[in-house]
UniProtKB/TrEMBL annotation, chains A, B, C, D:
<feature type="binding site">
    <location>
        <position position="54"/>
    </location>
    <ligand>
        <name>NADP(+)</name>
    </ligand>
</feature>
<dbReference type="GO" id="GO:0009423">
    <property type="term" value="P:chorismate biosynthetic process"/>
</dbReference>
<feature type="binding site">
    <location>
        <begin position="300"/>
        <end position="304"/>
    </location>
    <ligand>
        <name>FMN</name>
    </ligand>
</feature>
<dbReference type="GO" id="GO:0005829">
    <property type="term" value="C:cytosol"/>
</dbReference>
<keyword id="KW-0288">FMN</keyword>
<keyword id="KW-0285">Flavoprotein</keyword>
<feature type="binding site">
    <location>
        <begin position="241"/>
        <end position="242"/>
    </location>
    <ligand>
        <name>FMN</name>
    </ligand>
</feature>
<dbReference type="GO" id="GO:0009073">
    <property type="term" value="P:aromatic amino acid family biosynthetic process"/>
</dbReference>
<comment type="similarity">
    <text>Belongs to the chorismate synthase family.</text>
</comment>
<feature type="binding site">
    <location>
        <begin position="125"/>
        <end position="127"/>
    </location>
    <ligand>
        <name>FMN</name>
    </ligand>
</feature>
<keyword id="KW-0274">FAD</keyword>
<dbReference type="GO" id="GO:0004107">
    <property type="term" value="F:chorismate synthase activity"/>
</dbReference>
<dbReference type="GO" id="GO:0008652">
    <property type="term" value="P:amino acid biosynthetic process"/>
</dbReference>
<comment type="function">
    <text>This reaction introduces a second double bond into the aromatic ring system.</text>
</comment>
<feature type="binding site">
    <location>
        <position position="326"/>
    </location>
    <ligand>
        <name>FMN</name>
    </ligand>
</feature>
<keyword id="KW-0057">Aromatic amino acid biosynthesis</keyword>
<dbReference type="GO" id="GO:0010181">
    <property type="term" value="F:FMN binding"/>
</dbReference>
Length: 367, 367, 367, 367
């Protein structure tokens, strides 16, 4: 991973700012022969799109993706795929105050210090709008995965909002797409609706924890020791705006266990090894086991709030700021499809990497 | 980061197995003119060295580092620095059982499946012994940092062992080097001593959480959006053996806050911006703020334990395994200097990267 | 360099096909604060643009470049710069025959074999049209160089067409922009005009040799041993369509010299070392000396000709092919601005790389 | 390719100086399961080894290679392979003069200027001794190729020494290993023997041109547009010490041809496409055709000669230098096995890359 590109063989370079004419990504290394249409990619972009309900920013963006290269007669050609999304709703007047003042907890100040120039309109490059390009790339990755690993599925969902956690005992995966929070716990969804509404009205925001699970991923993915599957997943998730923590499997809870408790015992089935549990989140030594791959990440609350906070201006004067405009009270909601997209990109990348370095399939047979 | 190399400009490639003739690292991109001796590097290796007390593996390794290239007349030349450590205590007979059986929770099975060949002696490449090379590279990075950023200091310490957490209210940084657990909480150290002794005697192991703090790092480090400072720190820490989670600043706790609570308010001092708090862990939008850079990572308990666990053999037969030999009851202890080394490497890398892409200093003045 | 990206820190990823909706490049790593306008980039694109005289393809393309990201208020922000060029003249009917038959000497057959799918319209990704994106990136690199190395100039010119070589004794650099062949030898230009006209009318094509010279580049550029300045220049030039050979300085002629003849003797002037000659082309051990950097590359004749050639179809039948449509009788002409662009990109990249790894200026003083 | 590493998936990082304790390479990405012994690698190193006859430097080096990692029970494990060669004959007193004076035509001056510190003993990192590590890596690549592409062979040979060219009409490939110049033209070998002897006695040196041919390489290798097979070969060869030019197929001669002459016409055989000629050197559009892959490179004469040349000292005084010590009168001779090694590494790398990005075999069938 480097700078604005991620991936080893499936390489995604995103570009564009919140309020520039367009944003997008250049996807290099997509295998040839993958069927893909703009409509299919649009499906995933619509999931991330702002303004869909009162819990996300009211900015109106069609987020229409165009395929500008790399696809011919409906399939990828093995050359770079350019995916572009025009920005249409650019009310830059909303952001006038931010040109001079830095939002506490926001990248405003660090971008300014680092670069000496900053597109302050809507956060410029530091805006979560950049993640639209990731979702487009993730859609392409999904299509490639569908050909390479039939049966693989990737699902993201919210497991807690602020202090309020969903209860795994109530999880129903079919519920995820039925509520605005992408949570499998219907009761939590009901609870969060009122909670977030109050926060939104008071001009505040709140953090969230997202989980992404890949089911049906093959064993053998991951390139120790610095291209481990969990290393790349950690980087992928941490690179998402506002993410402050990443866990694999039991994560921080594993640090509280003994070795006896943490061992996922192994038995043998007709299809190969089976495990008694999945504390490891499907990854051992940086290589996938064939179990569910489980990643969780923590999203901090957005710093664009109506509550006045102390800050300074570019000229160094102390002042206060409140951020008007259209913002997400819980950016974690829209991070769900982004996390799914990153999972898709990382898995595809490692499938290609394994194929390149080792070949098709697994050379180490068991039984 | 890719495969066995990490870093963008300060690139460290580690090589070697637990029971091969040697292990080490090739460091490419160290700036020229950095004074360094083998003795200085040895200081850091000694900190990680096994067999120093009853809480770490009793394997006896001198862990003597040799500088084979890239240093002339006591300073680096700008060419690759090869650091080699001979393995001396290779009692491979201890590992006979592991050649056929897979330890639950260990990389044994995934390495076998992925590669079809595996150096089972001591875990081969998946052994935490690989981290000795990281510590050597980290020592070199520290010397380079000392020239480039006088006053920068990096300190790692243990913040919890199993369920037992140290108490920040009791932290005394001078205490860290006085106890075998590298914890700043003397009372926790006393408590953990008995706790771990019991675990060790019962043949069990336990997880831990490590924190690494860099003080005095300049603002402006980090290359959004996929070479963010926190992205690279997350990857660096997650790549360490047994790590299952990484947090920056408040990490998962930030997900429980509101935007009002999480904002680190900004005021102006003579030296530039100052912050009322450091929820962000010194990183905003992937770029350092100049505050302390705070990373925490969770280490799972080692899977090499004397407690019998159900598993299978390479030929697919179900069986039980207990792992004799010399193992760390809490690998988190020796992960402390490793975490420090990774922090040093990442910071140096980003200092070089910033200098290359932007130049010396920060173009964006405040005040 | 890898796949569709070149450069270490100044990284250019090109995308797009000859007859797709658009092509362009994503430039990652351009330093912040570089003034740039679309008009300035257009200047260089116009130089490469087809259809300017009877010696280049009659395809009509405005080759208008749009800056979609990374530039704010007229200067670069340090974030990715997206440069897009819409394709407008896409007469794909001209290419019907090529969908089934392979042009001898063309990438038609290898793209088909490698990928199993191929955008045959105008050569798709293998078309020299891809180089428009390089020229755009080169224009941006020139603006950055103008700030970082005032006085640096880059000039490309044609030194031979087919068997007919220009004569260095007649070189007048002011002449280059006055003839359609970008040659400094006015007499050669006159000679080539008739020669190429005859070739064009007969439906044939011819090769050429291009030289690119950078004057005023600082000493110290180049990262031995695999990021040498000449290594990267060789890769950059060889990656241009139809290029079959690259030389630095005396190149192949140096292989005919003795060590005594080839040594560029060194004397001392007020400004530093001065050399009696420049057999080395300004590069020793992969690092620039401060002299002119001299690169030459050989461009083969285009394979799209009206002369019938024996070939096969996708279904394996033997047949003949003549390539109608609009083609360059000497693609070497339009390779001149492309070679300049690659030189600009490589030099900027190495200036950033040197700054990152070593710092500003040269630590090794002489005198 | 970057800095001291080359390759995309088969990545070779070389390290070490001429007169340090050792040199070697870290090979990351070698597929698992490749049988290899130190003896097999030694075979290739012996071919490059100095002091074998009066035409190469009289430095005595055993050049014994040790495998320190990545190989277990005689086969590669998929983890990094460390290959180390101890330097034994380090008569550094021979080089005293060079510590202060710069050899004209040598990297002495540029290394000094760039880094401000330089291991002047034997040229340090700029010494051709670095290529021993490449030859070791090339030997490993050959073993991997033998498994992946049975029947592939790589052969390098000298085609001219100074002004004196071998005659292709007299080529007998069996002759190559019978003369000290690795030339297939026995008459040229006899001629060069006397010629080089005279040059050697007079303290002079001379350049050479080397050709490397790979027979039996599959079609489909190469990753357009910046990881083209010819791009990577050009970079690989240009990175070898003293190389000033690289050609693919007809190379510069192709620039003198018309399109009609240069087209390699295609017919159909049972085994697939066959070509009437190979002007292209087996590469079209950066992708291999399945024909012989033909690369030539020009090696300048060494600058370490007994003829006095004008130069300056580090303190800027003008002086003369003659280089005593043990030097190759024609470094081109020992560049032959180095060129072969680079070809092996590049081909293996592209076989892995193709497998990763496209899969096994060629999706585009003909006939």
């Amino acid at each position: 991973m480097s700078l604005n590109t991620f991936g080893h063989l499936f390489r995604v370079t995103t570009w564009g700012e919140s309020h520039g004419p367009a944003l997008g990504c250049t996807v290099d290394g997509c295998p040839p022969g993958v069927p893909v249409t703009a409509e299919e990619l649009q499906h995933w972009l619509d999931k991330r799109k702002p303004g869909q309900n009162k819990y996300t920013t009211q900015r109106r963006e069609a987020d229409e993706v165009e395929i500008l290269s790399g696809v011919f007669e409906g399939v990828t050609t093995g050359t770079p795929v350019q995916l572009m999304i025009r920005n249409t709703d650019q009310r830059s007047k909303d952001y006038g105050d931010i040109a001079e003042k830095f939002r506490p907890g926001h990248a405003d100040i660090t971008y300014w210090q680092k670069y000496g120039i900053r597109d302050y309109r809507g956060g410029g490059r530091s805006s979560a709008r950049e993640t639209a390009a990731r979702v487009a790339a993730g859609g392409l990755a999904r299509n490639a995965l569908a050909r390479l690993v039939p049966g693989l599925s990737i699902k993201g969902f919210m497991v807690s909002m602020g202090e309020r956690a969903a209860d795994p005992a109530r999880y129903d995966m079919a519920e995820i797409d039925r509520n605005p929070f992408w949570t499998p716990d219907a009761r939590a969804a009901a609870d969060w609706a009122g909670y977030l509404d109050d926060l939104r009205k008071s001009g505040n925001s709140v953090g969230a924890v997202i989980e992404v699970v890949a089911t049906g991923a093959p064993a053998g993915l991951g390139a120790p020791v610095y291209g481990k599957l969990d290393t790349d997943l950690a980087a992928a998730m941490m690179s998402i705006n506002a993410v402050k923590g990443v866990e694999i499997g039991d994560g921080f809870a594993a640090a509280r266990l003994t070795g006896e408790q943490n061992a996922d015992e192994i038995a043998m089935s007709q299809g190969g090894p089976v495990y008694s549990s999945n504390h490891a989140g499907g990854i051992l030594g940086g290589i996938s086991t064939g179990q569910d791959i489980v990643v969780r990440f923590a999203v901090k609350p957005t710093s664009s709030i109506l509550k006045p906070r102390k800050t300074i201006t570019k000229s160094g004067e102390e002042t206060e700021i409140i951020t008007k405009g259209r913002h997400d009270p819980c950016v974690g909601i829209r991070a769900v499809p982004v996390g799914e997209a990153m999972m898709a990109c990382v898995l595809l990348d490692h499938i290609l990497l394994h194929r390149g370095q080792v070949g098709e399939g697994l050379p180490g047979k068991i039984g």
